[in-house]
Amino acid sequence: MGYAIAGVLLLLIVLALIYKSVRWLWLKGLYGRLFLVAGFIGVLWSIYDAIYPPESFYISELQRLTKVILPPEAKFLYKTTSYPDIHGDYSACFIVQLSANAAEKLKDAIASEPFHETKISGCPNIDNTLKPLNVMANQYTLSKRATREDVEIFIELIPNQNLAVISWYEW
User: Fold this and answer.
1) pTM, full prediction
2) Are 109 and 69 in contact (CB under 8 A)?
3) What is the full DSSP assignment across 113-133?
4) What is the distance between the terminal CA atoms of the chain, rounded to a whole angstrom?
5) What's the CA gap between 171 and 158, in Å, rounded?
6) Where is 154: in which H helix or E strand?
7) What residues contact 127, with CB distance under 8 A and at least 6 apart?
8) What is the DSSP letter of 137?
9) How far apart are the C-alpha atoms of 31 and 40, rounded to whole Å?
């Protein structure tokens, strides 16, 4: 019970400080108001970037988790990620179009990794228009656990279309 009261009290103190700061900046005139607007836009952009990460997030996470480097000419057709829960668990999925040469490089890059065919869908929440890609993506599959954290990774290649369906679930 004591922690709940302390939490509510702390929340009220923080809200009062925010109110006082915003009011103080507002009363400073044009520059204070511009600073408030810029800060508000910055907070909104941070929230948007966390919910809809840029392509660089997917590229860097793939490299961090598997040491597989996505070719720079990869064109993103689809990308989605879940927002991390309270324990940090999240999933991500993206589909990239590759050149024939880049697709071969990616196939070679994952050839030395543990390999097995699977019927599991790498992108369970994929849009209905892209569902056939998930069905086709069972020719080559990489599934391994990363060394730094518990992660299940699927790299599914569709050779006849030079597509890669890449997904992971981190817990």
Assistant:
1) 0.71
2) yes
3) S-B------S-TT--GGGHHH
4) 31
5) 27
6) strand 151-158
7) 78
8) T
9) 14
Give pLDDT tens digits for 110-154: 766 555 555 455 565 666 666 556 555 554 555 544 444 577 777
Cβ(134)–Cβ(123) under 8 Å?
yes
The DSSP string of 64-125 is: HHH-PPPPTT-EEEEEEEPPP-TT--EEEEEEEE--HHHHHHHHHHHHTS-B------S-TT
Instruction: Return the structure tokens found at 143.
Output: 């599934």
Q: Is the dihedral of CA 121, 126, 131, 133 positive or negative?
A: negative
Tokens of 56: 């660089």
Coil, helix or strand at residue 5: helix
Nearest-angstrom CA–CA distance, 95 and 79:
6
Q: Which residue type, as a one-letter code, is found at position 18?
A: I
Amino acid present at 139? Q
The residues pairing with 78 across neighbouring beta strands, listed in sequence order, are: 95
28: three-class secondary structure by DSSP: coil
Query: Residue 151: beta bridge partners?
Result: 170
Beta bridge partners of 75: 97
